[in-house]
Amino acid sequence: MRMNPLSAIAAVALLAGLPACSVDDTGPTEGTAAQVKPTVSDPKDLKIAYFSAGSSNSYLQAGIAEAKTTAAELGAQIDIFDGQFSAQTQFDQMQSAITSGKYNAFAVEPNDGNLVCNLLTQQASAKQIMVSVFNLPICGRATNAGEQTWEPGTVNYVGGQTIDVYEQWVDQVKKDHPDGAKIALISGPDLNANTIAFFEAAKAFNDDDKYQVVARQTTDYTTPKGFQAAQTILQANPDLDVIMSNFSGMSRGVVQAVNGRDVAIYDFGGDAWSLDSVRAGTLTSTVMMLPKMESRKSIEGIAEVVQGIETARFVNLAESDSLPGTPFVTKDNVGLFTAEY
Predict the structure, then answer these.
(1) DSSP string for residues in 99-167
(2) Is 175 helix (H, G, I), strand (E, B) or coil?
(3) Nearest Cα to 86, choosing from 65, 117, 112, 66?
């Protein structure tokens, strides 16, 4: 994700003053996305561009499959764009989609929510495109909680990886290690909003000298990169106590690198493998992620605006009815959870 986005940003700046035609200047109804006006009269008339952060892992593939299913149920058209975990690639895809005039709705999982901010809230609006954002907040809202993850001018924000969930994840490690611990953090790409939120929440370890973050690595979320990062960290820190891995795909590599050492692995992802690993004791815990629900609620939110149905500005998947009252999985409660991917 190393890039030089200056030319793209300049293009955005030139268009930043365009009016947001789908936004009601009277302001939103509290708690709902009422400020976004429908640009079509029937969900069957929706032409959706679905921008996935990538397509290289089972989480993303599950979300893409559910997006297609949801669109088919609505009778809507949908095209999938693979962002390839590249902020610049995805920016270019969105800009092309806007100028093409083919779409009246975007469902967006942004690789860099700041780079695409004006594009989604100004340019898309000016072209009568309704925008829903999921998994990764935009416009500097990565470390916000609750409704503050939603950006005005968009339909909604759908997600379960908000800063408060990461703060609870960090608190869990503290509670499990009351005498202190040496901790390593492994996350996804640098510009990814979930990486930003994770590392921000982990600053709480600095509040107590008993806890020491000895390494912080970013990866592309894959198992090989997770293995490589964990192996390097373990070689440099043979007395490591905890690894926090911000995606189950990476955690598979972390488990391989740990290879039976006395290191507690805290996973974030909640896929079928991680639930089995919590049962077996290979992982200390995991946190549930719901890629199918993210895609479905994003597209359904757009359809609700078209139908004149109030839709929540923030859909909090950490409180989803599909979860047993918590997204945090331990060996004691793992039997209550079902993985989406």
Answers:
(1) HHT--SEEEE--SSTTTTHHIIIIIHHHTT-EEEEESS--TT-TT--GGGGSPTTSS-EEES--HHHHH
(2) helix
(3) 112
CB 168 within 8 A of CB 161: no
Asked if 136 and 246 touch (Cβ cutoff 8 Å), the reply is no
DSSP tally for the chain: helices H, then strands E: 11, 12
Phi-psi region of 259 (alpha: psi -120 to 50; beta: other; left: phi over 0): left
Average pLDDT over residues 236-259: 98
CA atoms within 13 A on the CB side of 257: 28
For 161-216, write each residue's pLDDT tens digit: 999 999 999 999 999 999 999 999 999 999 999 999 999 999 999 999 999 999 99
pLDDT at 19 exceeding the cut of 90: no
Per-residue pLDDT of 59-71, as tens digits, reads 999 999 999 999 9
- DSSP conformation class of 288: B
How many degrees, rounded to 5, is the angle at CA 17 between CA 13 and CA 21?
130
Distances, alpha carbon 305 to alpha carbons 29, 190, 311, in Å:
13, 34, 7
Say which residue the tokens 């079902």 belong to: 338
Residue 3 to residue 212: CA distance in whole angstroms = 32
Rounded to whole angstroms, the Cα distance separating 7 from 19 reads: 22
Q: How many CB atoms within 10 Å of residue 151?
A: 21
CA distance 204 to 168: 11
The two structure tokens encoding residue 286: 């995991």
Tell me, yes or no, if the pTM score tops 0.70: yes
Q: How far apart are CA 215 and CA 243, in angstroms?
A: 9
Strand 181-187 and strand 211-218: the pairing is: parallel
Residue scoring higher pLDDT (110 or 17) = 110
Separation between Cα atoms, residue 160 and residue 7, nearest integer Å: 33
Whether the CB-CB separation of 94 and 119 falls below 8 Å is answered with yes
- At 65, list the tokens: 């499959």
